[in-house]
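Blinded run. Sample ID left blank on purpose so nobody reads anything into the name before looking at the predicted structure. Input follows.
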Amino acid sequence: MAELATGNRDDALDLVQDAMFGLVKSYADRDEQEWAPLFYRILQSRIRDGYRRNRVRNRFRAWLGLGYKTDGDDVPDPIQNAPDGERPGTLQRVLQDDAMQRLQAALQDLPVRQQQAFLLRSWEGLDVAATAFAMGCSAGSVKTHYSRAVHRLREMLEDHWP
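Blinded prediction complete.
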């Protein structure tokens, strides 16, 4: 979810780590059942804060005439590149990768609230009440956003939808 929002795996991992620290720091004494919705609420807050910071930074960069710089630290992670003994065949991997890329592209085309509702309900398995708490909205809004997301994804991925 964070990677879709940021478009960068490293930034997404930083957001998730920051959200985890926030959860442990403020809510460690809460019941374990409350942790998932609390975590996603904190994560969504961090993502929105990141959007705001980037918007301000980009205004100053444009105003000062500075381009967007990349740090060039893209060193491959040896653990990520380690061989997996139970990998599917090449054709299966290509088909799965293609399907995942189409799904990610379709998810990125959704409005943010629909993205959140779909990911929290479908991928994370939260119920409507927990999703509403995590998103900071009503259960009815979650149902609406989720329904619209599913319908829109079906339209965009009709060749791949079961």
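Unblinding after everyone has recorded impressions. Residues 96 and 162 are 15 Å apart (CA to CA).
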